[in-house]
Amino acid sequence: TTYNLIDYTADLNTVVLSTSGASHPPETYLLRNGTLTLLSKSFPDIDPASLGTTSLIYYKSRDGLDIPAFLTKPNEELCGSAPWPAVVHPHGGPWSRDTMTFDGSMWVPLMASRCIAVLRPQFRGSKGWGRKLWMTGDAEWGQKMQDDKDDGAKWLVSQNIAKPDRIAMFGYSYGGYSAFAASVRPAGIYKCAIAGAGVSDIKRIWSRFYTNPFFRQAQAPTVDGLNPLDKAGEIQIPIMVYHGERDQTVPIEQSDWFVAKAKQSGKPVVYHKLADYAH
């Protein structure tokens, strides 16, 4: 559980704090003169038991790198014992990371409550796990960065956590890029992919951000590797794509382009455009 000090008086007689955890929706408390009072609960109708348990694990990539990941297992009393259907759920960014706090997007709680195991790999390029992991993601989009996610899926199977024929890839933003990449990779482990607000053309998406010397000189060379749009007509698995029409971070054209080509593959393609939805 994470404890967050929101505000307090100078004499510390009155304190406002919040608590949160992977299976614990946020709660806000007032501590006044030694008495603790609950002020509010986020998502009070959710039964925390339905959210399963989350732990930090490590697995080896195919080239020997230690990959940290957050693993959420369903509640066995509600869902039965492993193996379960599973989703590999990469974060956005990619220069970001996941934490053990409550997932306010509600994606992880939703999946766990539906008896799905969720793996959130902190693949190379993720921040906050040391320089080596961060820097080894440079120019490895859809390549070694993607291998890390696939190796996580294989680890789930090896640990008897995931059913080998029931694994999906689902991500948003850079995670959506990962889902696009998963759909075009041959001999993949996933049975389907879900891409939310994904980047399909890494060459065109980043040109709009190279507006200062840092981006041009430092960041631009790190964004290279697989361009999913180039292979969209050859997707290997069914895919669902969704994108907000008001997205100002990843323009909806990124999904439009991919879907138009993916429909030529003969594989099932579902596309949802969300009105008044941003990034």
Net shape:
globular
- Give the N-terminus to C-terminus distance in angstroms: 28 Å
**β-strand number:** 12
Largest sheet: 8 strands, mixed
- Percent of residues in β-strands: 25-35%
Q: N-to-C SSE series?
A: EEEEEEHEHEHHEHEHHEHE
Helix amount, in percent?
10-25%
Structural class: alpha/beta
Question: What does the secondary structure layout of this molecule look like, with pairings?
Answer:
Layout: E1 2-8, E2 14-21, E3 24-32, E4 35-41, E5 53-60, E6 66-73, H1 76-79, E7 84-88, H2 107-113, E8 117-121, H3 131-135, H4 144-158, E9 162-172, H5 174-184, E10 192-196, H6 202-207, H7 213-219, E11 239-244, H8 253-262, E12 269-274
Parallel strand pairs: 7-8, 7-9, 9-10, 10-11, 11-12
Antiparallel strand pairs: 1-2, 2-3, 3-4, 5-6, 6-8
Structural write-up:
This protein has 279 residues and is α/β, with parallel strands linked by helices. Helices cover 23% and strands 30% of the residues. The protein has eight helices and twelve strands. It has helices at 76-79, 107-113, 131-135, 144-158, 174-184, 202-207, 213-219, 253-262, and strands spanning 2-8, 14-21, 24-32, 35-41, 53-60, 66-73, 84-88, 117-121, 162-172, 192-196, 239-244, 269-274. The strands form two sheets. It has an eight-stranded mixed β-sheet with strand order 5-6-8-7-9-10-11-12, sandwiched between helices. A hairpin with a 2-residue loop joins strand 3 and strand 4 (35-41). The longest helix has 15 residues, at 144-158. It is globular, with a radius of gyration of 20 Å. It starts with a strand and ends in a 5-residue tail after the last strand.
